Amino acid sequence: MRKPFLLDRAAARAGSQAPALASVQSARAETDTADSREPTRAELWLYGVVGGWWWGFGSDTVAYELRAIGDVDEIVVRLDSPGGSAIQGITIANLLANHPAKVTVVVDGLAASAASQIAVAGDAVIMSPGSQMMLHDAWMITDGNAAELRSDADWIDKQSRNYAETYAHRAPAKSADEWREVMLADDGRGTWYTASETVAAGLADNVANLPSLTPPPPTPVVDEGVDDLEAAARISADLSAIPPAVRATWTDRLSATMRRTHEPPNASAVGSTPTEGGTAVAFSDEQITSLRSTLQLEDTADEAAIVAAVDAVVAENLEERTQGNTVPEGQVMIPAARLADLEAGARAGTEAAQALRNKECQELLDANRAKFLPTSRAGWEAEFHRDPDAVRDHFASAPDLIPVSEVGHANESATSEDDALYAQVWGDEKKGA
């Protein structure tokens, strides 16, 4: 049974991620007035997979939302996540821990794996009734030779140690070594805490309901043709280790993201980009400036020109990718394992044919040994392998050069001129005396 996904090699080492899809949402509660100064509060929703694979949130999107929130006294982070990228989880946790505002993390449902790092980063941590937190050791998908695998194993140990030290920083009643034991409990599957158990372990402050300041983010809607379906399948598989009651909720959410909506196009304001099946999104001035720079457009380029430039870049990359995957005419693609089997079979067939040719050569030369000198046998072997039919034709008509039958009295049936003369003188009865 696979563990909930904690880290991915590419995402953890390269920091790759996709943008969040309606899983990150922040809002600021307007509580201060011109006459009175009350504490200002903002709310940040973090729902989905840590790292932003296909559906979720990443460190860049969280950083963007924190910048958008601006200067407030308190940020309430509402968290529900099965985990994801270890490095992204630590980055987001540090973004929250280093923010000047008081950060209150409310675990609405699940804070597992990398998401547990985000949870314990709050100045205050509240577990909603029925919520859970899960801690386990790091794991990764990898490949390579023995040295590379040993290096990856060492890297995982260091990453897990980092996690244990973070838990010890939040709950110093246990040392980092003791928290590592918690992460490795249940034969390496880790430890699941209920809401009250999380408080007892020192990772949360209390169990309570904290009303939200803003509506939750909408369910993300993702086109079925996105390139990250493999990531979605990976997420689904990673959820297999989560208890059925919790898994059902997350499975429903994943299924919802795969449904395509068929709503009519929304009306767009002048100068904005029309959209289909969703709400029109207006670019901020900062985003427009960044896009103009990235796409090398004029400073006066509007949103329509920006979208057209993006479409051109996407089409060009798609064409290059398609051309790179085209199989030349007259050739076929086969799995590497199948190719290895075919090559091995070809080598075996060649070796068998060579052995048969050698045997045939030796039998032919043995049968015609009277027609060549022993010292020239090697030459005839080479000639046979070059042109076997010509060698057969030669020996079929070549005369014997070397007598191979026995001569002398060892063969009683043999005769010679001396024997005939001897018989004339002495008679047959003296023959052989």
Helical content class: 40-55%
Q: Judging from the principal axes of the Cα atoms, what is the shape? A: elongated
Query: What is the count of helical runs?
Result: 15
**Class from helix and strand fractions:** alpha/beta
Instruction: Report the order of strands and helices.
Output: HEEEEHEHEHEEHHEHEHHHHHHHH
pLDDT < 50 runs, ≥5 residues: 1-23, 221-234, 257-280
Largest sheet properties? 8 strands, mixed
Please compute the radius of gyration using only Cα atoms. Answer: 41 Å
Q: Could you tell me the number of beta strands? A: 10
Keywords:
disordered N terminus
Descriptive report:
By secondary structure, the chain is α/β, with parallel strands linked by helices. The chain is built from 15 helices and ten strands. The strands form two sheets. Strands 1, 2, 5, 6, 7, 8, 9 and 10 form an eight-stranded mixed sheet that branches. Strands 3-4 form a two-stranded parallel ribbon. Helix 3 (86-97) links the parallel strand 5 and strand 6 (102-112). The radius of gyration is 41 Å and the shape is elongated. The chain starts with 8 loop residues before the first helix and ends in a 7-residue tail after the last helix. The relative contact order is 0.08.
